[in-house]
Records
---
Amino acid sequence: MPRLPAPLTLPPDAPTDAEVRRARRRRRRSESATAWAFVTPSVLVILGLGIMPVVWSLLLSFQADDLVTPSRWVGLQNYHALTKDPNFRQAVHNTLLYTALYVPLSMVFGLLLALALNRRIRLVGLYRTLIFVPFVISATAQGVLFSFILDPEFGAANSVLHALHLPAQGFLTDPGQALYVLVAISLWSGTGFCVVIYLAALQDVPPSLIEAARLDGAGRRHLLWHVVLPTLTPVNVFLVVWQVIESLQVFDLVYVTTKGGPLGSTTVIVYFIWEMAFQNFTAGYGAAAAYVLAVALLVIAAGTRVLRRRGPARLEGATR
Amino acid sequence: MTATSAPARAARDASVPPAAPPGRRRRLLPFSGWHLALAPLALLFAVPLLWLLLSSVMSDGEINRFPPALWPSHVDLSGYRYVLGNAMFPRWFANSLIVSLVAVASNLVFGALGGYAFARMRFAGSRVLLVTMLATMAIPFQLTMIPTFLVMKRLGLIDSLGALIVPSLVTPFAVFLLRQFFLSLPRELEEAAWIDGCSRLRVLWSVVLPLSRPALSTVAVLTFLGTWNDLTWPLIAINHDVHYTLQLGLTTFQGQHHTKWSAVMAGNVITVLPVLLAFLAAQKSFIQSITSSGLKG
């Protein structure tokens, strides 16, 4: 909540109600014009690059388009082809696997770390900073850095394994490992976000609640399970939605590290869309895949909204 | 609360055998046991970044031998010299800076104007527009990127910084966040200025905006982070390396100089440094921005 401002100087004699009303009426006429002048830039950009492309994308998904020559209407063929495309199926599979691993792990680690960090001990500020810092680093920089660390020949990771007398690993070059390695990199950078959100929520747990439970003789474990964790429910809902949406849209990290390889083992949906539209120049096909993804995201967002409305605890404000 | 709890706590402590001093457990360590778990974990998060920094000042000989050196024998700046000398990095840095700063400035200006109109002014169509704008916040970028490319192409902006700037001029997020904040301000302050004959623009500028620093900095921080770190859109919109942003340049550079790791890592440090410094300098408001936009919309 924003702090309320200190009172500014008001005019010496406060205007009467009638004066205020008259002033308002006078202004209302020119008001609409001013308001439109204020919102026009936002409206132009947001409609032009938000709403219009959504419609355009839908139309594109019914067409064959190579981004250069005029497109041709093909009806539902793109969608039909998608259902039969083994590459798309693999992309969906990879994305779901990534999401199923990344979302729960990042939240569990985030909560555990937040619980550990939510105390007044020395250096705790430093710990928080170190854990959160990877979150502000771009996926590109992360990808370049970890390609280096995990390089099978020159990388530091394999030399550590060597020193421990463990066999060298292929990491991102091994089709059986690459996706899991990507999840691990994302956990390194994304857990800090969950930590920060959980920490903020933990600090919002009303002290009176804890005090009351303590007076009733609740032990530490009871306090955690029956008082603290239940108050985190709205935050959990928010984080699930947020992290799922983020992981269904993962792209940058994949592009920088593996380019979908090896053997398609890390091709995720957005990578598939990008490849279809901008590498193979089958934009209509890419748009169809994008629509499938968007509908999935919409269902998730709408579903949790319904759930949240039914649930007793509601998160304030719009969290998408 | 404290008044009621203090006697209660005293009563409970009184029942504890007097050997243990009240409110204190016997300590095995001269510091909290939590450090034993937290210090290694924090280190785990820090090590990759430390390695980034160290390897950027190593010589390629040190990096490429097996096992690689863990600590540079001396600070070798040849990676930085290479990156700043014969590559396009300074250009890419400038491009990134231009795109990000323009995006921040225009999101602040247009976000504040739009947000203020939606918060305080009545005009025909305001409700429909607001709802439409909220709806666009839920549209994933992947759905709009192909038509956005086609629009930019028709405008003749593809393969220029314009293609990067125009789509990020104002986001529904900026408008909405500022609107929410303006709604939370007390109306009376504005009305006073209003009665004094100030125009709307003047009220916004000299009454509302000075009170809105937290929200404005949230918009600035998140816009900067988003545009500076973006790779997807530059990858689509830019072909020639003179118009690359740092993120796009870095990944291309890595592809072309696969064995020159010291230079790649030096470039990586340069890419990361601005956000890292900004974060460390304003950590508190940074984290506040992220939690507030996440939890309170």
Note: The longest helix of chain B spans residues 89-120.
---
Amino acid sequence: MDMSMRILVVDDFATMRRIMKNILKQLGFTNISEADDGSTALEQLKSSKFDMIICDWNMPKMTGIELLKTMKADDDLKNIPFLMVTAEAQKQNVIEAVQAGVSNYVVKPFTAEVIGDKLKRVFG
Amino acid sequence: MDALIINPFIVATKNVLSTMAFIDSKPGKPFLKKDNAARGDVTGIIGITGDANGTIAVTFEELSILKIVSNMFGEEMTELNNEIADAVGELTNMISGQARKELAEVGKVFEGAIPSVVMGKDHSIIHITNGPKVAIPFGTEAGNFTIEVCFDR
């Protein structure tokens, strides 16, 4: 795995962005940006290149699943790996995300080990 | 109110705090709360709709939430501020999500709203639904917190 890959962390809660950035730094990643909802993430995705999206589901303006579907419909963005990290743990959520093309799915709460393992699976 | 609805919130609360903040919390005896006074200094509250409609509140004493968020961030938090409020919102969100997952597994499907947070000494928690308010006190090494569950049936 390229530890200098550019990762975009998307969550409306600053707490979760902070925790995720701490975990990614612990895991050795050095190039991390953040966005506070799907629409601001989309703006960033259109203006610069990212190698990985780690995204919450429930957010104001544009949700994580809406961002995922929008990216999959865009030829420039559809191949960027997308890890959904969410408190929405019910089966229908997981099924909807899989059908939309999510790379993997993490249910909150999570440990650093879980995030590391999921990233390995995405890039393995 | 059915104990089947209450227990998943107790399990979810313990799980969220142990996973995200490495804190062991011990639930005390649930009781019916008659007043609106918050038992804590900062409260996260979230609406839940589905098989029943209601609200869940998680209210933390200052020392307990400072320790919890310090552990979550890996740095010491010394005062109640916007960072603490944001963290309480996210904790409430995670507790709601975990509990709703467990409830869905026994056929009770709920959806959660986006949480709100109230902070300050002697604030009130007013549940909009007109049902019994079940409070479950929790103890941690750093202080106490209480969850309140109120459903219309």
Note: Chain A has one domain: 6-123.
---
Amino acid sequence: MGKPDKSSLSHSTYRGLGRTRSIKEPVIGGEHEVLSGHQATLISVLRHAKRWPDAGLGSIFWPAGRGPPGCPTLPHPTADPPDVLLHPRPRNPQSPGRPRHADPSPALGHRQSSIPAWCAAHPRPCGDSCTTEVIGASRPVEDGHLALDPSGTVNGMVSMGYANGLSAELRPIPIRQCGRYRRSSQHGDVRKMTSPNQVAAPSDIRKGAALSIIAALLGPPLVIFLAGFLTIQLDLSQVGANGCRT
Amino acid sequence: MRAGLVLLAFAAGLGYRSLSLTWTGKVVTLLVLVTAAFVGAYTLRPIPADGEQHPIALASFMYGAVSPFTLALIGAVIADMVFAQRRRRANLQ
């Protein structure tokens, strides 16, 4: 596969969770709007590994058999995937002497742990950690393609294609589902975000917290009142016409 | 009436799960329930004598607060907080 078409990259289509969303902003280089946790992971790791330009990634699709019709298909994982875990995981990735963003070439197969810039720049309403971790390359991915794999949930794995035909799998990002928080965006095509790992704006977080406290203050008394009322009615229903319990 | 109590329990559980999103909300819910249980218990002690009249709304609150229903809700909230704490720790690891 040849060099990717820049125009197609600037308007890639992301399919996931039964919806189709468009990435209006360029996803290679420069600033872009992060659409979801998966994409944030993806873009973060792509930036981290700095392999995107070399890989010639031109499209995003679901793996074979799981994606929507019309998507390009992935080759199935080989029965004996190549072992590219060349080096053991360092005990302390943040230790001095080791660059935080290591050179991507030897990093393939390394286990890397870092806090992506996206995690630091965006609020995490549920207070959970936001990390990505390349846990090793295990699956062949067609050159010039990028595979999002497979479930579309928070715990889904993201695979990243490399020019050498291997992929790196990322550890799930533990961003908890945050209920009905909804992040608005100025970009028209990403207005409706119902992904479970979406991130709420700070105002939405405050609104949600206030609503939660109000519900906690008003809900239990209402439930207690209804329970007591039903209990009394239940007792009364057991009293016969003569005033005795039946 | 028993079916109404069962439905109320379901509604309370669903409402709690959908509205009590934050840790603060869970704590406030637990505090309100425990306070209501204590207040109801002390209000009904000594047991009102025969013939003593109570407004139906106040009686509903009192009997509801000391009913096993409230105790079950307190247990459910505590269990949810324990599991939420475990999930949080597991996610942070």
Note: Chain B has a mean pLDDT of 81.
